[in-house]
Each structure stands twice: as C-alpha cells, then as structure tokens.
Amino acid sequence: MSTDISALNNFPVIIGGGAAGLMTALQMAPEPVVLLSKAPLGAEASSLWAQGGLAAAMGEDDAPVLHLADTLAAGAGLCDEAVASRIVHAAPAAVEHLAKLGVAFDRRSDGGWRLGLEAAHSRNRIVHATGDGTGREIMRALIAAVRRCPSITLLDGVEARSLIVEDNAIKGVVAVNAQGPLTIVTGRIVIATGGVGGLFLESTNPAGCFGQGLALAARAGAKLSDLEFVQFHPTAFDGPSRPMPLVTEAVRGDGAILIDDTGQRFMADQPGAELAPRDIVARAVWRRRAEGHRVFLDARKHPGAEFAKRYPVISAFCKMAGIDPATDPIPVRPAVHYHMGGIAVDIEGRSTVNGLWACGEASRTGLHGANRLASNSLMEAIVCAQWVAESVRTASGDPLKARAADASPPASDPSAVRPILSQGLGVLRERHGIERAIRGLYPLANGRSAASDPALVGLMIAVAALQREESRGGHFRSDFPDTLPSAAPSIISLADAFDAARDLVETGSLSVGSAKP
After folding, report:
1. How many CB atoms lie within 10 A of CB 88?
2. Once rounded to an integer, what is the mean pLDDT over residues 253-276?
3. Are 334 and 232 in contact (CB under 8 A)?
4. Residue 83 — left, alpha, or beta (φ > 0 → left; ψ -120 to 50 → alpha)?
5. Residue 47's Cα: distance from chain center in Å?
6. From CA 312, how far away is CA 115, in angstroms rounded?
C-alpha cells in the first residue's frame, strides 16, 4: 500500500464496503473520509447479492403511511414507530437519488417505475434493477461513484481488528493489511460491516459476513439490541453450494407457489398463503421438511415461460443444477438471510460509545422490529447513510495525537462456531438447545483464538434468545410458543453475556440481566 497512513489520522473512518458504507462515504463529501474494505470493493458485501429491491411508496395507489403500516405489522410489536415513519417517508427520495447516481432501475414502457410485490406488502412497491440483480446494479453505481469521489480514500484489503477506546470514546482503529498491522487515529468511526449469516452453516450471506462489526462494537463497550431476531429466508436454493443461492420472494410475488414432493400446496390455507410474513413461511417449510418431505417452489405457471427473462440470475444457477424453472419445480429450504438485531443506535446512527456510529445491517435502528419486511433493508441502508453522514460531519472534535501502532488481534475464523449456532439457534428454538449452544460458545468466546470474536457474537445472540421467553417474529421458541401481550427491545452488552453464560456454565441457571426484554 502506497498510502501514507499517518496522513489519514483524524479523518472519519468507515468500516465496510457494502451499500451502507459506500453511501455513507459519498454523503460525507466533500469532507475527507477513509473507507476500509476487507475484500476488494464489494466482493464480500451482502448488498451485491441482493435479488430483491428497495421498498418505497412510488406507486399512485401507495403512500408512506401504507408502507409504514406494513412495516409495523411485520415487525410484530417491536418496531420503533417514529424511526420507521421517518425512514419510510424518506424512501422515495432515496430511490430518486440512486437513479441520479446512475442506478438503472427497471421501468415500464411508459417510463414509469416497474413495481413488484413481495411478502406482507399491501401494495406493489418494490423497485428493482435488472430483474433479480438489484443489489449488483446498485453496487456497480455506488462503487463507480466512490472511485470518482476525490474526498474518499479507499483502503481495500484492509481489515479492522479492534477499536481503540478511552473513557467510552473512540480514539482509533487497529487494522491489518498485507504488510502487517496499522493504526489510524480518529475520534469518528462508522461500522457498516453487514450481518451475521456467516456464523451459520446454511446462509444466503457471503461467508465473510459473520458479525465482525458487532464484535468490534461489543469489545469497545457498545450496547447491542435485539440480537435474538434472525430472519430465515424460506426459499434458499436447496443444493450443495454454500453460501446458498437465494430464490427471491419476488418469484412468489409473481404467483409461484410452494409444494412438497407429493405436489401438495401446503401454504394454501394460511392467511397470505406464500406471501405471508417470512417467519411464518420459513417455519412452514421447516416443519414440512422435518416431516420427511422435500419442498419446491413451483413457478411453472407463474411466471412460467417468462422466468428466465424476469429472473436471469436465478435462472442461471438453476440451469447449472440441471433445473429449468419454466418446466421444473425449484428445490428450496430456509436459510439465514438477515439479522434484525445489531448495534443499538439512535436515528442518526450513534451508538452508546462516543464517536461510534453504525449503518446498515450491523445497526439496530428500530425499523425492522422482530421481523424485517421484505426489501426494507437496502432501503434502510441508503436512507440512514445520509443521516449518519450528517451526524459524523457535525461531530468533529479536537485533533487526536498520533500513536504507535497497536498489536492486532488474530484474524477471525467462524468455522468452529457455525455448527454450534446452527444446531441451537435455528428456525425453531428451545431452552435445552440454546443452553447447549451457550456452553459450547462460552469457552471459545473467553479465549484468544481465531474463533473468539465469532463466538462472542454467537454467545450474545444465544443469551438474548434464552432470555426472551416468548415467540415473536424471527424468534420462535417451541417451549414458549405464545407471544406476550407487550414487547420491549432486548439490550445486551458483552459483560452481560459473559456474566449470564458464566452463571449457566458454573451453576446451571441463567442470570437475569439487562438482556431480559
């Protein structure tokens, strides 16, 4: 790397090269900012893989208040209504802004927006680009804009390993590149590292997204919220590839149905049928498979012969597996897709640590509640990036003094964590399985190995899941199947998780800490 790292001291640092990080960096202009990306820009970002689109009230029969109502209904009582309202009202302008940046959204022949329907939406409001390649097209445009922007210093191949914190305030970041460790002194850091799917064996997320941002924040002393709410997408492609290719919900919005290996349409009698909220569909598919059946998405009639034209990405990987969706049912199964929880932030993205913000899937804004409404996540990242950038710009303080490079922790490897979390924190959960996961994760999280950071994130998820003794949204407890009449977000720190796990391991019972909702 030819960049003089010392020359970057006191610039704001954004950690993460997905849509949230790129858009935050662009919104910071013309203030100089440093963007750290562990992989070549966009290569390991979940945003790149997004087949769905952005949810926004763009249609003549739609309005933000209708979008808000659908969001709150899907969130199962845990959305922050004020936050959700502000975000969905800003969504149409965010789509227009992306179009001005060069995103080639799909249009009708008259030039109007081509709007799709996805689960739990009451209107066609999903804006797509190149059919099922929305994420790839958005990332193409954002990467091009970042490379054109003179105020952004891009450091790709640089992995953040730890944050420097003194008196609950950010003082810098310790990172590693091919030449070794490096330290950037700064009082302003934005975490935009994506989700936790790489902590599970079966996920639609890139394997490199395994909660690194959550680990950075937790070790820095930040509070995390709603970690127990993990969304399983009901229609991941049931094949050998890992990560698992996704069969977007838009296919069901076009009329495809779920059948089992006997041809039975098992969702027909459910309210909303195949377009019920994702947690309901995922549990139905999971149970069908547990009964010994395979499950398929049948698109032979709808969209039928139009499938390859409308969904070229899905059509391509199906054909590689010897399947033509126009004539063959597509084998599917649930897989980890999105994390509703994350770093607890306010509407401007500020965490509980001074000088630390979060944006995108790594954050918990209150938009999603217990169950993300389809296509609200890309929209959240794009909308909130503007507010995060404004907050970071106005928070500049006195310059910090340069310091010697700190020792960096080892590179993380989640492979030891994946089977533990997959077995204990799946679509259906119960106390004994979660407790086994905690006992398995605690010694790993308490060590200093490559598994430590992934294990501590998994441990915090498991403790929060054990302490929420109800079923709500993406968190379903077979031993507590009912939803309590009132709900509150869970809040947990790293110290809370370690204390609770230590009690379980040493005494056989879990302490009631601040993670209790």
Report:
1. 29
2. 94
3. yes
4. alpha
5. 9
6. 18
108 catalytic residue (yes or no)? no
Taking alpha carbons only, the member of 272, 241, 331 closest to residue 73 is 272
Distance, CA of 237 to CA of 14 (rounded, Å) = 33
Cα four-point dihedral sign 127, 131, 134, 137: negative
Query: How big is the chain by its Cα radius of gyration, in Å?
Result: 22
Determine how β-strand 169-177 pairs with β-strand 180-185. Answer: antiparallel
Whole-number average pLDDT of the chain: 93
| Closest residue by Cα to residue 38 from 263, 267, 212 | 212
3-state secondary structure 235-292: EEECCCCCCCCECCCHHHHCCCEEEECCCCCCCCCCCCHHHCCHHHHHHHHHHHHHCC
Q: Say which residue the tokens 């927006």 belong to.
A: 113
Determine if the peptide bond prior to 243 is cis (ω within 30°).
yes
Can you list the domains of the chain with their CATH numbers? 8-194+340-393 (3.50.50.60), 236-334 (3.90.700.10), 409-517 (1.20.58.100)
Find where tokens 């900012």 sit.
33
In single-letter form, the type of residue at position 236 comes to A
Q: Return the pLDDT at 53.
A: 87
Beta bridge partners of 297: 258, 330
Q: How far apart are CA 477 and CA 496, in angstroms?
A: 22
Q: Distance (Å, rounded) from C-alpha 416 to C-alpha 121? A: 38
Sheet strands side by side (includes 491-492): 363-364, 342-344, 224-225, 491-492
Return the number of other C-beta atoms located less than 10 Å from residue 144's C-beta.
12
Q: pLDDT tens-digit profile of 39-56? A: 888 666 666 656 668 999
What is the rounded distance in angstroms from the CA atom of residue 261 to the CA atom of residue 248? 21
Smallest CA-to-CA distance from 189 within 33, 34, 62, 13 is with: 13
Q: Locate 223 and state its tokens.
A: 């509070």
Residue 288, token pair as written in the block: 């069908």
Question: Residue 508 pLDDT > 50, yes or no?
Answer: yes
- Determine contact, residues 173/22, Cβ cutoff 8 Å: no
pLDDT above 80 for 467: yes
Supply 375's token pair: 């296509």
CA distance 480 to 485: 13
The SS3 assignment for 331 reads strand
Condensed to tens digits (0 to 9), the pLDDT of residues 405-456 reads: 677 888 999 999 999 999 999 999 999 999 999 999 999 999 999 999 999 9
Q: Do 438 and 504 meet the contact criterion of CB atoms below 8 Å apart? A: yes
Q: Which of 123, 252, 278, 472 is catalytic?
A: 278
3-state secondary structure 282-328: HHHHHHHHHCCCCEEEECCCCCHHHHHHHCHHHHHHHHHCCCCCCCC
